[in-house]
Design goal:
The chain is built from 22 helices and 13 strands. By secondary structure, the chain is of the alpha/beta class.
């Protein structure tokens, strides 16, 4: 009898130890799989994460009835979550956030473009998880048959979890725990907050709150007054406006000095030297390595991602009705509006968003399947795409001036493989003859950039000889993932893994060009952001700004750069955007943007 009692006591002790320890091991193993230096996390945040893992284990126990099932579900889920985070960080230099759930379909579109070979780190920690799963087998605690207890415990646990998530978003708790809040430094957030606690903290940015002191009627009146003073069309011949947002196009020279065997963008570099009827410079964007539609949203609407929840995708979250944008403004003047993207229509909710922004004609990959196009790697080349841009503008142009907005695909990641249809014409000095992954990435990327530069030059040559007035606007949507430029970083003594905060600002700069085949102002070295560029295009076309754009133009005088990352004032002082949002000027811009996005019912 004593032996039986002793065995029962030992069994209880064993089960209690496994119930308590397995969630702790699950936290540390999954966290260390994602970030190797996660043990540097402040002790308060380690404790918060441990308690969250324990809470989830308890909820699963009440739901499933046995500790073995609960611990298996929790540990397998967080192993998968950690593996997915590891891959995503490799692909796009960021981690999974709450809003990524809404863009899962887009992620599946390009999932086949990457190399999923597991790293040594993944294999080692998977082995450690296997050992953990073997240990879980010996946990025999059960709650089966206790239905009322299980139901009560499950719902109480959920309520506690929801309360914990809410509390992690409150300012007092954030300050008390020292939660790391620099949004665009996802590496630092995961390292210092823990993947689970950080995910719950980031959920606060899923909701859009009204700016302080916002009044709908007041904003409407303000915008109407601004619109009344915006002026008239100053040209008798409205030009075609052709906009090309080129996938991952950037000039890595802004990140650090390096040299190559040949110039990787000779045509654009020549335009930057003060070409006739040309405006050039650098545009600050709100994303890096992905989330392409945010750049086009800023350009088309004049809105800034700096006033929206961090990491949000407006096309998926906010463009639910007709919204003021360039296509609507230009249609009022008789423009034909077209948007094209030579890839799958399921990406980023564009088929639903584009009509709400005012586009009448919309073409995706299906349109190009019957055309005679060239592929570079697996994507339609920029040259073929630009040929079709010309064709569509000429076709639609029979009925009036054309606004053509185009998003390319040629330069999309990844850059790890070599293809017979892409010779690596450009090589970074110091990588000649090398076949390592870092050299392949950077030389593939720069060779793609050169092909884009050649295609763009061909397009400009066509419009130089065109009888129709045309403005051509060209810019990149974002820089590639940081590891693509790793060779350049290292040649400058920089390790991109360690870059955070203000040191990353240059990683959000892309070149832009505004060119016309008629007289416009020449300017070079312009520093701007995506939300302002459309204003400049309209002005050079002789088209008056809307009331909202008139207000943003005034704000631009004080802050010529505003993005989700930074703000730069007229004296060149740059700060993180979160440090500026409470300023009076920013509040006024926020109010007007909120009205445009959520309360303007005129479209």
């Amino acid at each position: 009898m004593k032996r039986i009692i002793m065995n029962e006591k030992m069994e209880k002790i064993k089960n209690i130890c496994l119930l308590v320890l397995i969630p702790i091991f699950t936290f540390y193993l999954s966290q260390l799989l994602i970030r190797k230096n996660s043990l540097e996390m402040p002790w308060k945040m380690q404790l918060v994460n441990v308690l969250l893992y324990e809470l989830i284990a308890a909820i699963l126990l009440f739901l499933l009835g046995t500790a073995r099932k609960a611990l298996y579900v929790e540990s397998v889920f967080f192993w998968l979550f950690a593996m997915l985070n590891s891959y995503i960080y490799t692909f796009r230099n960021s981690y999974i956030m709450p809003w990524d759930i809404t863009s899962a379909g887009t992620a599946m579109n390009v999932a086949g473009n990457y190399d999923y070979t597991p790293t040594a780190r993944m294999l080692i920690f998977t082995l450690l998880f296997i050992i953990l799963w073997i240990g879980i087998f010996f946990c025999s605690f059960k709650l089966e048959g206790k239905k009322k207890l299980r139901i009560s415990g499950f719902f109480i646990g959920l309520i506690v979890l929801i309360a914990a998530a809410w509390s992690l978003q409150q300012k007092a708790v954030v300050n008390g725990l020292g939660i790391y809040t620099i949004q665009f430094d996802s590496k630092g957030m995961i390292k210092k907050n823990g993947v689970l606690a950080n995910f719950l903290y980031e959920m606060k940015y899923l909701n859009m709150e009204k700016p302080e002191g916002y009044d709908c009627a007041e904003e409407k009146k303000l915008l109407e007054e601004a619109s009344a003073s915006s002026g008239e069309v100053s040209s008798n011949s409205l030009p075609d406006i052709i906009v090309i947002m080129d996938e991952a196009f950037s000039d890595p020279a802004v990140d650090g000095k390096f040299s190559t065997n040949i110039d990787y963008m000779p045509f654009i570099h020549s335009l930057q030297k003060g070409a006739e009827n040309t405006i050039t410079g650098y545009m600050n964007v709100s994303v890096i390595g992905g989330n392409t539609p945010n750049t086009e949203f800023e350009f088309l609407t004049g809105n800034t991602m700096g006033f929206l929840p961090k990491g949000s995708i407006p096309y998926q979250q906010y463009v639910r009705r007709d919204m003021d944008a360039l296509p609507w403004d230009l249609k009022k003047l008789g423009y034909q509006t077209i948007a094209m993207h030579p890839y799958k229509s399921s990406g980023w909710n564009r088929p639903a968003a584009y009509p709400k922004l005012g586009f009448d004609t919309i073409y995706f990959l299906e349109h190009f399947e019957d055309l005679n196009v060239e592929n570079v790697r697996k994507y339609i080349s920029d040259e073929s795409f630009m040929d079709e841009i010309i064709n569509q503008v000429n076709t639609l142009g029979k009925d009036g001036p054309v606004f053509s907005f185009n998003v390319t695909m040629q330069n999309h990641s990844s850059y790890d493989e070599r293809y017979d249809n892409l010779p690596l014409d450009v090589t970074v000095d110091g990588t000649e003859g090398q076949d390592d992954i870092a050299s392949t990435r950077v030389n593939t990327y720069l060779s793609l950039v050169k092909k884009t530069d050649e295609a763009f030059e061909k397009l400009i040559e066509y419009y130089k000889n065109s009888d129709r007035h045309a403005i051509v606007v060209f810019f990149g949507d974002h820089q590639p993932e940081s590891q693509v430029l790793d060779v350049i970083w290292r040649q400058n003594g920089i390790y991109w893994e360690d870059i955070s905060g203000k040191d990353r600002f240059n990683s959000y700069k892309v070149p832009f060009v505004i060119w016309a085949n008629f007289d416009i102002n020449e300017e070079s070295g312009v520093e701007t952001s995506a939300n302002y560029l459309g204003n400049r295009v309209l002005e050079e076309a002789g088209i008056p700004l809307s009331g909202y754009r008139t207000l943003t133009k005034e704000f631009e005088k004080d802050y010529p750069v505003v993005s989700a990352i930074q703000g730069t004032d007229s004296e060149g002082n740059t700060s993180e955007i979160d440090d500026l949002l409470n300023g009076k000027e920013f509040i006024e811009y926020q109010k007007a943007q909120y009205y445009e996005m959520f309360d303007d019912k005129e479209h």
